[in-house]
Amino acid sequence: MKHNSTRKADYELLTIQSIESPTDLHNGLDEVLNKHLDRHYIIDITKLSLKESHAKELQKLLDKYRSSSRSIIYITKIEDLSLFDERAPVVPTLQEAIDFLEMEEIERKLTGEEE
Taking the model in full, what pTM does it have? Predict the structure, then answer.
């Protein structure tokens, strides 16, 4: 998996440039996410030609890290949104991803997940 990473104050923006396979996508992202368990991630996958198998691998990662007190949000092309579960944090723009992240932070504070 080839990617670029940009650290922001509240999150890390990971832009996936290319992958070899759905498994490469899963394993590459899992490695990055596992190294930095304290960071929120916005993952831009708009440069990829997604298939259902890619979406399944991305959903597995969401499920794996769901219990952590951080957010993982995907940015994808509008036409690829239907590949994901309707409850998955998948949006078509960076601004929507930032807004989603802020809403999740507010929700965590209201439910007492973070002190």
Answer: 0.90
